[in-house]
Design brief:
Layout: E1 20-23, H1 33-48, E2 52-57, H2 69-79, E3 89-90, H3 95-107, E4 111-114, H4 118-124, E5 126-128, E6 131-133, E7 149-152, E8 158-163, E9 167-172, H5 173-176, E10 180-183, H6 191-201, E11 206-210, H7 217-227, E12 233-237, E13 239-240, H8 262-272, H9 284-295, E14 304-305
Parallel strand pairs: 1-2, 2-3, 11-12, 13-14
Antiparallel strand pairs: 4-7, 5-6, 7-10, 8-9
Helix pairs in contact: 1-8, 6-7
Length: 324
């Protein structure tokens, strides 16, 4: 069995590619249909642009990581025919890089300590585009001794960017998001800081991911600007919804994919993206040829939908198919 903790190379990364994409799952459980849709879109976009497709494990929130999930995700991706370039990056090993970025922000006077409890947040914050908008109670208070969460002072202006699928997006961070946490009181760095540092470290030029992260993008652009880092181009794919209309995720008990039967799930993911009629295929090679053809003529934006009206997200198993 391959050692998935090392490298899985498709090409020579010493050569500079103008397109560098990535897929960054969280190893809090096995790969599910929503993750497959995101992987499929990012992989197709990279390969159609003759680009590099990198793989990153977003395991920065170590208490939520499930033992063995990272290796299971890598095995599933390989079973489905994904080939990533270079070594897998693990956020849990990059604390020094996150701390260095945090200190650069602190040197600019952009970070302050926050000791607000969840009760205080609930009583003083208002609902924003992605959760509660922090009221800034601790922004002008004297520094707290550790432990305390560290928040970023967001710019008091609109962040505007053009999304390749969703169109123009604008967000006033101060009123719609508020100052957000970079490092929690327990010392764990947050997703927003880690993803910005890692995208820059890996030279990512294009980010293709689910539209559930659309509201995170303005915060990440603000961090990129503060740190003097390049901003990738973004494409946010349709969100997979469950029967109740909620985002399909591990938190909503999404069914894991079965690596033994890759074709049914791959075809369903391709249909979900709504790129055009999907033909039956006999093997993975035929699937990937068709998927590249359809991605080249991508269709109109879709912000959220269910895969099919029948209810089930993906079959738990399926018939044996040749060449898979």
């Amino acid at each position: 069995m391959a050692d998935f903790s090392l490298e899985h190379r498709r090409c020579n990364l010493d050569s500079i590619s103008p397109y560098r994409g990535r897929f960054a799952p969280s190893p809090t459980g096995p790969l599910h249909f929503g993750s497959l849709v995101a992987a499929l879109g990012s992989y197709l976009d990279a390969r159609l642009n003759n680009g590099v497709w990198l793989l990153r494990m977003e395991d920065v929130d170590t208490p939520r990581v499930v033992a063995g999930a990272a290796d299971a995700i890598l095995r599933a991706l390989e079973a489905y025919g994904f080939e990533w370039d270079g070594a897998v990056m693990y956020q849990s090993r990059r604390g020094e890089a996150y701390q260095a970025a945090l200190e650069r922000l602190q040197a600019q006077g952009l970070v302050y300590a926050c000791r607000c409890s969840r009760r205080q947040l609930a009583e003083t914050a208002r609902r924003g585009i992605d959760g509660l908008v922090y009221a800034g109670l601790c922004r002008n208070r004297p520094p707290f001794p550790e432990p305390a969460a560290l928040r970023l002072i967001v710019p008091d202006r609109r962040i505007v960017f053009d999304d390749a699928w969703q169109g123009r997006v604008a967000c006033d961070l101060a009123t719609e998001s508020g100052d957000f946490v970079l490092r929690r009181a327990d010392g764990i760095y947050t997703y927003q800081l880690a993803v910005v540092v890692d995208d820059a470290e890996q030279g990512v030029t294009h980010v293709v991911r689910g539209a559930d992260l659309l509201t995170s993008t303005p915060r990440q652009i603000a961090l990129q600007e503060y740190l003097g880092l390049p901003t990738p181009r973004y494409l946010h794919l349709p969100v997979v919804l469950d029967a109740a209309g909620d985002k399909l995720s591990k938190q909503t008990l999404a069914a894991p994919l079965d690596p033994k039967w890759p074709l049914p799930a791959l075809l369903r993911a391709l249909r979900f993206l709504g790129l055009g009629p999907v033909r039956p295929v006999a093997n993975r090679a035929e699937f990937w040829a068709q998927a590249r053809e359809l991605w080249a003529g991508a269709g109109p934006p879709l912000r959220g939908r269910r895969p099919e009206a029948s209810g089930a997200i993906v079959p738990a198993a399926g018939p044996a198919l040749p060449g898979t």
